[in-house]
Design goal:
Layout (H helix, E strand, L loop, with lengths): L2 E7 L4 H4 L1 H8 E13 L3 H11 L19 H20 L3 E8 L2 H9 L5 E5 L5 H7 L2 H8 L4 E4 L8
Parallel strand pairs: 1-2, 1-4, 2-3, 4-5
Helix pairs in contact: 5-7
Length: 162
Amino acid sequence: MPYRKILVPLDGSKLAELALQHVVEVAEPGANIHVLSVMAPNPVDEISSLASAKGEAAALAGEQWPPIRPADPQAAHAREDYLRRVSEWLQLMDFDVTREVRVGSVIDTILDVARDGFNVIILVTHGRTGMTRTVKGSVADALLQRAPCPVLVIPPATAKEE
């Protein structure tokens, strides 16, 4: 089933960028591919967000701590430039590529954007295990549980550079 409106969240890693190769395999000709980068306000907020997604911070539900601070304009510009660089080849293949940088909780922001009528979210999981997974949580797991549309998760073992 080809998809018409595809959301691809990228975290800046080379592994995450490999999701773009899989987009081509499932996208309709001329499909809208929306590439998203979410800037966490700070590392403490990001860990809190991931813990909340795993149900470990229920006591903080409804509260934003620490408060979200305005994004550093230079960092936001660098993220926009990054998204353009990694996705411009899709435009050469006649896809409608849109790019967006947002500040906020990674999981909640991806879910918020996905509610804008996307047919699928495509991402490569980092495949973290053990303590790293416990501390950092899993964006892919949270999206699988809460997304308003299908989520295509590419395992790191199959997301090889070509």
